[in-house]
Amino acid sequence: MSANFWKSRSRASAGGNSADKPIAIDLFCGSGAVTTAIKANGYRVVAAVDINRICGVTYRKNHPEVIFKRRDIRSLQPSELAVAIPTGKQLKLMAVCAPCQPFSSQNRRRGAADTRAPLILESVRLARALKPQLIIYENVPGIAASAIFQRLKRSLASAGYILGIPQRVDAADFGVPQRRVRCIVAAVRAPGRIKDFALSTQGSERVTVRDALADLRPLSSGESDPYDPLHISRVHHEITLRRLAAIPQDGGSRDSLPPELQLECHRNRDRGDFCDVYGRMRWDGVAPTLTTGCTDVTRGRYAHPRDDRAITLREAARLQTFPDWYRFAGNRSQIAEQIGNAVPVEMFRRLVSALRRSYPDA
Ligand SMILES: C[S@@+](CC[C@H](N)C(=O)[O-])C[C@H]1O[C@@H](n2cnc3c(N)ncnc32)[C@H](O)[C@@H]1O
Questions:
Q1: Ligand 1 near 302 CB (within 6 A)
Q2: What is the CATH number of domain 5-206+343-358?
Q3: What is the C-alpha separation between 248 and 251, in angstroms, rounded?
Q4: What is the pLDDT of residues 24-83, one digit of tens each?
Q5: Which of 18, 70, 247, 357 is the most core-located residue (most Cβ within 10 A)?
Q6: Which active-site residues does the annotation give?
Q7: How far, in Å, are 47, 268, 355 from residue 185 at the CA level?
Q8: What is the pLDDT of residues 191-207, one digit of tens each?
């Protein structure tokens, strides 16, 4: 497996889903980034669930062999997933990337007040029945200090699982050209022993914005690459183009705007607020955390390092380490949403690989 399998232009490198492989299930699968990462680690993903319709269409396009359930996980019966597990085979891995908004520092309804917070506990109900050897949870760091995390630990214990110590990881340390700080924690079936799995970042070279984007066609506002439907620049207003032209290439910020181009709403704010909007990415750095607004320069440091425009969907997909062969369903904003909400494929691929070294049973 290549260190940068996401750079491969061919699906062949993605790993098949053949019968003799260890079995995995993906809960809250979204558009399938985690499934892609698990398959690249040699697992056969047999079933996945997500409530979102467009995510489901994308998921089926890329993983047609997996049984995808478009459902609210709360109404999903374990038997609906169990039928996908071949007779006589044990479920080795369950991936659980529950919605992170309830635990995010940017959410004012943070914590138990957000009705999405308890969704993660559904994994325990399913684990009781399906008995995966290893469960991997991915979320934002805020989850580790939440009351839900303590409930998760207790209910996993009563279901016969031991939850490990949450590990804070930055995708940029795992081959992703993007800063994205996440929390990873694993649970193993007792009497298995939970070790702190070795998340060594040593020897892992930083992948930069240049590595990810430099080979793509330069575009101006409104221009598109005829060979790549995702590499199309949004059409910027004239005032936005004047602002972008005034911001230095390769990492410049809106600090450089002359007074007549400054935004009224930014003038009276502290420098800390919104200071990244209209900012350009740096070629030899990593991108900031991509959100669902990642192709909009008014939502963060999402301007191209050189071209006077926001990054395209292709560029956003590359910064999330989706391989170019990955197909997305939906309109532009639905695709941006899927990309911004995804788990970086390469980060998860490397984490699963590290976990497998720590838990050879999985
Ligand atoms: C962090 S995203 C998952 C990312 C995904 N695993 C990936 O590989 O990129 C959380 C997902 O939870 C889904 N979700 C939210 N509420 C749900 C529910 N009640 N039942 C099932 N899925 C739900 C959302 O549609 C979203 O795709």
A1: no
A2: 3.40.50.150
A3: 7
A4: 999 999 999 999 999 999 999 999 999 999 999 999 999 999 999 999 999 999 999 999
A5: 247
A6: 100
A7: 21, 42, 10
A8: 766 666 666 665 578 99
